UniProtKB/TrEMBL annotation:
SUPFAM superfamilies: Multidrug resistance efflux transporter EmrE. It is found in: Cell membrane. This is EamA/RhaT family transporter. It is a multi-pass membrane protein. The chain crosses the membrane at residues 41-60, 72-93, 105-122, 131-149, 155-175, 187-208, 220-243, 250-270, 276-294. One of its GO terms (cellular component) is plasma membrane. It comes from the Bacteria. Residues 9-145, 159-293 form the EamA domain. The keyword Cell membrane applies. It holds the Pfam family EamA. PANTHER family: INNER MEMBRANE TRANSPORTER, S-ADENOSYLMETHIONINE_S-ADENOSYLHOMOCYSTEINE TRANSPORTER. Keywords: Cell membrane, Membrane, Transmembrane, Transmembrane helix. Gene3D superfamilies: 1.10.3730.20.
């Protein structure tokens, strides 16, 4: 009885975390209605969340740092750069051109990219079942896009490509950071990565932009703050807690509600509507990714002695 309650509460925590993460695209699209640039919006998100990660880093002292080498900090800089700065910047740029629902569907393919990157650079084997799952996933993406091309043309290609780059950089971050997280710990690694990405965004702004960030209405700053807290800080801890309680394999199954929640939220707050074919494509993508995640978790269990 107690175990069931704990598991149910963990599932609820996972669902809330996923929905909050999914709401980011909605807030970005709402902010774009006030003619804010993608760089400024990303800057607001990072600046508002930065103090909280600095506080976490200050109070969460590591038990031991003997296993951490100098090159580990260099890799941390690199993965903070690509994993949160580049991935977020490509995502924000892409949302200027495509619907929030489509954005989430494309981002959701990142587990297939993790498999492909691991195969190319780490020589990890991809099973026949995983290959089939990858093909199913990309077939779903093609179906989803086919219905949008007749309305947006070149814009959908540009937006889709930018979101794909976001998924690719995030997948690269996941592949490369896997061996760093055990050394730094989840909280410290995430905090370091977010601080590094915040610094990258600030440098980007100072070098290439430097236009006033005080020219917008209060709604833009409010949405930036909400993104920082509701779609960055809080869900990052909720997801970590859920994975700790129910495991990564179970969480990956629950994670399939991400695209669904974004589509629903986009319908409610943005009046975005996907066609029947696009919804069918979204379902196919979700099935493919869930299949990839399940097969990956089974493979990992076989490797455990």
């Amino acid at each position: 009885m107690l175990f069931s309650k704990i598991k149910n509460s963990a599932v609820l925590i996972a669902v809330v975390g996923i929905v909050l993460f999914s709401a980011k695209a909605i807030m970005v699209k709402l902010a774009y209605q006030y003619n804010v640039s993608s760089l400024h919006l990303l800057l607001f998100r990072m600046l508002f969340s930065l103090p909280f990660y600095l506080i976490i880093l200050y109070f969460h002292k590591p038990k031991s740092t003997t296993n951490i080498k100098k090159q580990d900090y260099l890799w941390l800089l690199f993965f903070g750069f690509i994993g949160y700065y580049l991935a977020s910047y490509f995502d924000f740029l892409g949302l200027q051109y495509i619907k929030a629902g489509l954005e989430r569907i494309i981002l959701f393919i990142y587990p297939t990219l993790v498999l492909l990157i691991s195969r190319i650079f780490l020589k990890e084997r991809i099973s026949p079942k995983q290959i089939i799952a990858i093909l199913i996933t990309y077939f779903g993406v093609i179906i989803t896009f086919s219905g949008e091309l007749q309305y947006n043309g070149d814009h959908i290609f540009l937006g889709g490509f930018l979101i794909f780059l976001s998924a690719l950089t995030y997948a690269s971050y996941l592949v490369g950071s896997g061996w760093l997280i055990p050394k730094f710990g989840v909280l410290r690694f995430t905090s370091y990565a977010m601080i590094i990405s915040s610094i990258c965004v600030i440098i980007h702004y100072l070098i290439l932009d430097r236009t006033s960030v005080f020219q917008y209405s209060y709604q833009v700053y409010l949405l930036g703050f909400m993104m920082a807290i509701l779609s960055t800080l809080i869900p990052s801890f909720l997801v970590s807690l859920a994975i700790k309680k129910i495991g990564a394999s179970n969480f990956s199954i629950i994670g399939s509600i991400g695209p669904i929640s974004t589509i629903i939220l986009a319908y409610i707050f943005l009046d975005e509507r996907l066609t029947i074919m696009q919804l069918l494509g979204a379902v196919i993508v979700i099935i493919g990714i869930t299949f990839v995640s399940l097969n990956k978790s089974k493979k990992n269990r076989k490797l455990v002695p």
